[in-house]
From TrEMBL:
This is Gamma-glutamyl-gamma-aminobutyrate hydrolase family protein. PANTHER family: GLUTAMINE AMIDOTRANSFERASE PB2B2.05-RELATED. GO terms for cellular component: cytosol. GO terms for molecular function: gamma-glutamyl-gamma-aminobutyrate hydrolase activity. The keyword Phosphoprotein does not apply. It comes from the Bacteria. CDD domains: GATase1_2. Keywords: Hydrolase.
Length: 244
């Protein structure tokens, strides 16, 4: 059976309409999961207090946390620095609740870009609020060229990504100004750029993975990135069988 994987999506206003908000998510997340043997479902990050997140998570076999704006720094015990970007605090609260439930239910999680960051925060880790102003000698982590193609290399430690692609190095795209600083308890760093910026984390039980790059922008034409999608779908299938 194809596992059902929720793709978390947030709200936005569209141009010339500041009255109605719309839930949105990049099509790459959904298409990559469908191509890899999963059944993608859009998971709206509702911001009302009685949102039925538990019922929503019970219907899923796995979860993808998507990209977006910066998590609020007080959530990991810091004051806002000058380089901090736009905050969506209502999304933070909704996503933290979804993550808490997914962890409780032992649902596999793939966090991408912001998704990796909020997963790390939810589990007790911290973030670099702004790489350019806080990491001397850092690479350009918000590439100015096409984001569908790689910009810098990531060296991989043994874990989910290295196993998925069968390599110890991968060329990734990059579209972020924040990154994991202190890895959350129960997680390990499994990938880093040569400038020291953490690019991949994984829970010690192997259920939860965070990637700082955007594989969904690449997995339509990059075989390594497609293998990551396929490996996550396989992880969800395996977890589903083990919980029967």
């Amino acid at each position: 059976m194809r596992p059902i994987i929720g793709v978390a999506c947030t709200k936005m206003y569209f141009p010339n309409n500041n009255l109605d908000q719309f839930f949105y998510v990049g099509s790459g997340y959904v298409e990559g999961i469908a191509r890899s043997g999963g059944t993608p479902l859009i998971l709206p990050l509702l911001t009302n207090a009685d949102a039925p997140f538990r019922a929503m998570l019970e219907s899923l076999d796995g979860l993808i946390l998507t990209g977006g704006d910066d998590p609020a720094p007080h959530l990991y015990g810091e004051e806002p620095l000058q380089g901090l970007g736009h905050i969506e605090y209502e999304r933070d609260l909704a996503e933290l609740e979804v993550i808490k439930l997914a962890l409780e239910m032992k649902k596999p999680i793939l966090g991408i870009c912001r998704g990796m960051q909020i997963l790390n925060v939810a589990c007790g880790g911290t973030l670099i609020q702004d790489i350019p102003s806080q990491v001397p000698g850092a690479f350009q982590h918000a590439q100015k060229g096409s984001r569908q193609y790689g910009a810098h290399k990531v060296t991989l430690q043994p874990g989910f990504v290295a196993d998925a692609i069968g390599k110890t190095e991968i060329l990734v795209n990059t579209s972020h100004h924040q990154a994991v600083k202190d890895v959350a308890p129960g997680f390990a760093m499994t990938g880093a750029a040569a400038d020291g910026v953490i690019e991949a984390i994984e829970s010690l039980d192997g259920l939860h993975v965070g990637l700082q790059w955007h594989p969904e922008r690449m997995w339509g034409h990059d075989s390594d990135m497609q293998k990551i999608a396929e490996a996550f779908v396989a992880k969800v299938k395996q977890a589903k069988l083990q919980t029967r």
